[in-house]
Amino acid sequence: MKIMKGIARFLGVDGDRSAPPPRYVGLADGLVITETHAEAWYLLGSSNTDLMSEAARDAEQDQASSALARTLAGYDCHLKILWSPLNAEDYRTEAEKLFSAGDYGAWTELRVRRLEELELPTRMLLLGVRISERANQAKARGSRGVQDALGIGSTSVSQKEIARLDALARRLGRQLETTPWKAQPATVELLAWMIAREQRRGTPLPAPDDQGMITGAKLAQLTRGRVLPYPDHVRVLDQRGETVGWSAILTMDGFPEEMETPGPGEWLRSVAEITYVPELMDDDEPGDISALPVNPEPSVRFKVLHKRDALKQIDEIRRLAKEQRQSAAKHSAGETAQEIEETEDTMTSLSRDMKREDVTLLEDHPRLIVSSDVSLEDLRSRCDAVIGYYGGVGIEVSVAAEEQRELWLEAQPGDMLRVPDLMHTRTVGAFAGSWFWGGAAVGDDTGPVIGYLTGSTPGVVRNDLTGGSERGDATTTAFIGRSGRGKTTAMMLSLLDSGFRGSFVLALDFKGDMGGLVSAGQRYGLNAHLIETGSQFAGVADLFTLLSGESAERAQTEVPAQLGIALPQHLRMRGAETPIQSAVNEIIAEGDPATWKVIERLRQSPDELTRETGDALYELSLTGLGAPFMGRPVGASLITPSPGIWVVQVPGITLPSPDDARDDWSVHQRLSVALVHSLLAYGISMAGRKDLRGLRKVVAVPEVHVLTATREGSSFLQYIARVGRALHTALVVDTQDPESLASLTGLVEQMTTVFGFQLTTPEQQDAMADLLDLPKGAHTRQLIQAIGVDVTQEIRHGHCIMRDRRFSSATVQFDVPSVEMLQLLNTTPKADAGATGGGPLSMSKSAYEEANA
């Protein structure tokens, strides 16, 4: 038998090229069972490596190397990287559980259409491990032909065997779960999809039975497709015999002796970066052609050698090199080839390292599957792009000639190694350096889609402003960056999603450019209102009205404090605060209190000081800043504690700094502080009301540096941030000054998500790096500097670095789902908010594409 195997290996036919295709007998969660053996299959998680620090990368790569050497040693493994097209229809189904307010169906449809345009694939990492040889495999091979001919073949799997295999798979899975790959058993539905997709089966995937298994006829229908092999590709045929796809299997023939990571050494992670330019079709315009991703699918069968076997192999190579060196020294030339000496030294060093550390050898057989649904010429263009890309980093790749069938079968789950000729032996550290699980990943697992990744791997990005409380996590989100980079528009998109989730959204718009949020909300049926300063909105911020329910008692102290802030200093010095409190108490006792009634009571008093106080406050109530909190209402109150969006615009306010003495405050500053006092008191009362604990609440503060400049504002922000989880209240802030934000320890500690847009000064960039959990240094500064511009150095709106609740960071593009929405949310000075009667601005398609570039 050994002689026959040796002859087969010499002739290049080792590896059982002629073996029949795998015959599946059962699928279950985490298990693929064939007639001859059983494999455990796991779905691997991705690590966010694009912006990971060098120390963190080294540590994680060491963990992966250790997992390969300890956990997978001796197993036959099969790593597959697949690309799943994004099914936008799934988001429509998910939206039924996410959204509940307004015309969320139209909002969802808008996002679904946009996702269909983007066509973002999702990377799937799957690892198969052969865990058992089936006892009846020899019998099955021998009797299969007779049974099939007689029609009595059986593919049943006993429950006892299923239980044993499940225990083996779960035991190994618990070990792989603690690795950087965070492995989880692949669901039976995922395994069925993986098997069926290789033959482009158009039929619906079968559902598992009551025991969670897919067997019998349901399993057979997954592999009823037809595949025709050709010298340099295979063709996939549909049920009518027509070609529906072309695939070519490429082999990786040679690797450089040394490869660096980060860099060319990440040969498995980098498959997402390969692009090609398709040929121009008859109906295409020259401007329509752009580079498209190839998305080759690696299939790597590998086996980690036990350290004993690896050391034995290394010692044989070292001894052979030593004998060659000694033989050369005996000849007259006395010179030894440099390669022989280097080999001997390398093997000696490697043997020493393996005895000291968790290092061993690994044998792998990497293949790349390139597919096209367009044409054979398109397939060959894709193959050329893959070969050229890897050639640029010193890796030899070629299309396997005359062995496409064998290699295609070899790539199937449950098959075996068929073509062992191109085997590579490397250390587990070198294989871990391929970073097959690396790339870009950030955001929530579920929730509204806000945009897409722009890093080394594609995918959608999700973020739910109101999801922190449900997870028992912090609830603060920060948008940070210089003006004009799209952070306020990004915030408004997220607030819209919160509105559709049935949240109460209060936005304190100090700059006066968020009217588009109301326009967009009303366009899609949300309860949205715009409130501005001025006599037409008199009384909307009256604390007697705002502090309702269980918060009503607070008005008895908050209203006098507010009027005392607005009061001229000379009246305060004469003791005017006492008559104000007395008038407040009397108005409350009469019922139906209001601040304007307090002022009228003061004006009608026979006491001179009290009357002067009332007259002064009355005159101030006629101003644009005074009317909202102490003017006589001209209509019903607009702000109510119910689901909806309220944008309170107070542009032009001037708040004093903490160092300014109160005696030096101007009239404008006094009224600004008093108006903000109303809004902050309302925000705190809304968050703390027990009867509103079940209501999702969002308090958004654009240009938050306006509040951080005052003690009251800083206290408010830190209070909402700290109690947000318990009170189901999310805080959203927007600022151009990360340095001042970083000084609010109570706020920074509660940040669950940070969106970092472009900044240009080193000090601000370093402060941003801290908030994004990125290492300080020239590289990070350069990254933050470049995040807001494209390759032509033009502004790239909505492009930022996102740090999620897991402290992972990646580059993200906020995506506006339509041109109309971009017009509605326009924050430029020329924008005219639809809520005040103006229509959306006109904007060309090119402007929209630029914003989403």
From TrEMBL:
This is ATP/GTP-binding protein. Residues 323-349, 829-853 are annotated as: Disordered. It comes from the Bacteria. SUPFAM superfamilies: P-loop containing nucleoside triphosphate hydrolases. InterPro entries: P-loop_NTPase.
